[in-house]
Design goal:
Order of helices and strands: HHHHHHHHH
Radius of gyration: 33 Å
Strand content: under 5%
Number of helices: 9
Number of domains: 2
Distance between the termini: 71 Å
Helix content: 55-70%
Shape: elongated
Largest sheet: none
Length: 211
Amino acid sequence: MLNQNRLFLQKIKSIMEYNTSRKKMVLPEYGRNIQKMIELTVEEPDKEKRNKMAQAIINIMGNMNPHLRDIADFKHKLWDHLAIISDFQLDIDSPYETPKIETLQEKPEKVPYNNKNARFKHYGKTIEKMIDYAINMEEGELKDILSQLIANHMKKSYLTWNKEAVSDEHIFSDLKELSNGKIDLSANKTTLTETKDILAKNKRRRSQRKK
């Protein structure tokens, strides 16, 4: 009777066991039951049985995500996850090469960033590239049109970030500086879009985004 009570208490304790005291799940999306099934498969001494158990687990894992069945390499991904959850301890005849733990632990290569700062951040690097392109164009109507478009875009960018009036002369001066004096619209009597029109358009855009 005493032994039966102890067994009963052990079962109750097992049922009431909190997740915080359980073994950490390797891939939580598959749940604890899948992890336990894989642990039992690792402990199975007969390899033929392990192969059958592994295939059954793969089928269950696949049924958990039926919408992914048609995706290329989905099965391969499942077998990789099986190996990962088993901590690479599962000795079976997998249809795919088991991923190496060293490969999974490799840190991704650093993404090279352009550390060159823009001279005027409110214009951005794209404007500078456009100016460089315009500088190398042959003199003529096309270059004049592109230069004016660049100046208009600079004015829009300035008003977007600074939200205050800016004169055309100020934009022409910045364009001249960014082009190292090679594009000067101040002497061509160029007229840019009115400040009030740009501000009104920016206001409409902000109101539309809020909606």
